[in-house]
Amino acid sequence: MRYNQLGNTGLFVSEICLGTMTFGAAGSGTTWGAIADVDQAAADTIVERSLAAGVNFFDTADVYSFGESEKILGQALVNLDVPRKDVVIATKVYGQMGDKPNDRGASRGHIMDSVEDSLERLQMDHIDLYQIHASDAVTPIEETMRALDDLVSSGMVRYIGVSNWMAYRIAKAQGVSERKDFARFETLQAYYSIAGRDLEREIVPMLNDEKMGLMVWSPLAGGLLSGKYGPGAPGNGEGRRANFDFPPVDRDRAWECVAVMRTVAEKHGVSVAEVALAFVLAKPFVTSVIIGAKRLEQLDANLEAVKVKLDAGDMEKLDAVSALPPEYPGWMVTRQNAGRRPGDFEAKN
């Protein structure tokens, strides 16, 4: 297990982060009921196995099974007698947690109410990484950043992050933080996979410029890249995708990627899923990849991905089949910057 710097902080986190969206009760008739199926005993085993593999980073959210995920994760760490200093706990705020108008969003009120609830469920006195789960079209960014800064100043939260925001909005928030001397966003949690590399257009350059870390969710595109689906799939395609078809993926494009991944997997004697994870882990802008599991065999298979070392030839094939089509203004920027980089100049006598 490798450990990477979290954004521009001195904190180090494992390259694999255990996501706990599966922690909770199944069959509730909600979105979470289609995803969650891990009770306390199973969660204890999954967390224990993750810790043994070197994982020190755990991600949850208040909205996952309406608080049950946070409760189960916190209790698992208590049951396993894990020292608080040995783990980095990330959770999120934004989602609908009640039936009142102010029970969601990134307002100061909802943030302040929610952080105390999350701490109680987690049985902790601080959250290492507190993330705004979605882009709030109503609340001014200044209000959100001020509330988060107050939480950092109070010690309830140590670092802050954001999830599912557009590049311009993150850059604006960082500008507000710099101007007001507020705590800054250190991370972005975003969807990224070999079949969905859209964030490379605008978001990745922004992350590099702002020295922010990237936490990747759904690196297997909701299981679509697991090898269970598409042409040549050995099974019947059962799994989460059969019940919860998310995130949206261009299937034709995905199957082209899977076909190449199968050849790379055969070369290394590993699974298609391990290749998909290894591809994401190999990207220099990725800090940590979030994996979830309902069963130990799923967890063990995903953890094996850190051992897969893709060579330059593998990456060239995988990059080529999954390359993004040119899009404006990117192709114009590339054209107009030809010859502008120092390495483009030839020494003249």
Characterization of this structure:
The protein has helices at 31-35, 40-52, 68-79, 108-122, 141-154, 167-180, 203-210, 240-243, 251-268, 272-281, 296-303, 312-321, 330-336; strands at 3-5, 12-14, 16-19, 57-59, 88-93, 127-132, 157-163, 185-191, 213-217, 288-291. The chain has a single domain (3-340), classed as TIM Barrel. The mean pLDDT is 93. The protein has an 8-stranded parallel β-barrel, surrounded by 5 helices. β4 (57-59), α3 (68-79) and β5 form a beta-alpha-beta unit. It is globular and about 55 Å long. Helix content is 40%, strand content 14%. The termini are far apart. α3 packs parallel to α4 (108-122) and α5 (141-154) packs across α6 (167-180). The chain has 13 helices and 10 strands. The chain is an alpha/beta fold and 349 residues long.
